[in-house]
Amino acid sequence: MTTPLPRPKRKKKGEGGGSGTLRADREKAGLTGSQDIHALPPEDGELLELDPKTISPNPMNTRFELRDMDTMLADVGERGVHTPGVVMHTKVFMECYPQWAPKVEYPDRTFILGPGHRRHAAALATGRVMPAVLRDDIARNRRVEEELLSENNSRAGLSPIEQALAIDLLRQRVHEDEDRTLNFDEVVERAGYTAGTVSKYLALLKLPQEVQQAIHTGALSMRAGYSLSLLKDAGGKKESADAHALQLRGWQLMRDEELSVEAAKNRLALEAKQEFHAGKPPVAPVAVPEPREESSAPAGEVKTSPNQTPKPVTPPGGSSETTQGETTAASAAVAVTEKTGEPEPAEAADPEVLRKAAADQRDLACRLLLAEERYAKASEANARLVTAVLNPNEWKQAAAKAHEWLVELKKGPSSKKRPTDYFAAVATSKDSSLMQRAAFAIGLAADEVRAAQPDREWDARDVAHVQFLATSRASYRLSEWEQQQVDRLSRGKQ
């Protein structure tokens, strides 16, 4: 059982809101000597001690669940709620926010919460009183969204999706002086984030529900989720069914194969380009991603293991639209062209045809890898370079292929049309990052040109080449023909 609640506390003179004297308050209210001062209705700014059962949760609250409550419950049970929440009269809130009135959980309760839902839950669970400041003014001024968002920004524990929903809630609010919703700049100003951060949060709400749930539970980082949100369909749209299918497939690759977001997007490009890979039916071709700026940072990684079964997330205010703040990372999105029908499976394909098809796939994988900011570890880059240096007779063809890749990806002096002129300019550019990328490209191209040569049997160097592509950020998947070569060599060693 709970102990009797103390009377509401009146503010002292000079604190604002009241007259400052008991007699003046009695006279103002028309009270007789036998009536109690606590018959006066509470005023804005007044600190009250309330039975938590008289307070309804706010339907605008974007938390899906109240996390990390054990410590708070123990603290409140021992010492009570020592930081007041904010309440409004429920009737005032519903009058000022008629669109939210049907969603109020307990419309018959006297008060409704602003910030303070975890404290309120702890007070209910422990039988403690709930200290709260009455703030009907934030409902009348239609600033409840901003108060809730401000509270969220100052407290840990919200998932990126919950934060995104709070910003989206603010985006939908009506301007207090005009009959219109807030524009993007006003949302940025009132949210307390940068424009880029607001855009990234809102972009999360355009992802498929399964991907949103993964971000909410922590299985997928916000950064990686935003990178997936940049995947587009053939028409350049990021919210169509085809775009959502790509985004969901990207998350599934990250979850099931523990790929980085860059590797997952590269795998999508390779899967879409699979025209005649290992005798399999062709699928839709894919455009090579535009290169990222040299300064752009790699996106986030998968955080947890894939064994969770996500539940759909249903945003209370629906999904939102990002009006600006798109970053250059959007250029790395995979643009898939429309399918033209399912062709018949290949019959007994010529091995050289399969070799050529696999070479086309590897060529794309090499370009995807070179487009990455972190294209290889130092040891991997050195291995490619050593191979190229020790086989100088391969340099001419390798340089031509590397030049083709790098110019297409807009890396280095694109005005140089001849490979020798291009690499000479790179060597004198004093750009150490570009020089290392160019040297790696030559070594990679030397391996690829050699592996693609017709009418020759593969050896250990060819196997090392495809295995490197498979474990790199290109996330290459060996064709059946390539796997046969690997198996043949493995059997030969036994």
What does this structure look like?
- The chain is mainly alpha-helical and 494 residues long.
- It is elongated, with a radius of gyration of 31 Å.
- Helix 12 (241-257) crosses helix 13 and helix 16 (395-408) packs across helix 18.
- Mean pLDDT is 76; it is low at 10-20, 31-38 and 275-343.
- 47% of the residues lie in helices and 5% in strands.
- It starts with 21 loop residues before the first helix and ends with a helix.
- It has helices at 22-29, 69-79, 90-96, 117-126, 136-140, 144-153, 160-172, 184-191, 195-204, 209-217, 222-229, 241-257, 261-272, 351-371, 378-390, 395-408, 419-427, 432-452, 460-471, 480-493, and strands at 47-50, 55-56, 85-89, 111-113, 130-134, 286-287, 335-336.
- Strands 1-5-3-4-2 form a five-stranded mixed β-sheet. The protein has a two-stranded antiparallel ribbon with strand order 6-7.
- The protein contains 20 helices and seven strands.
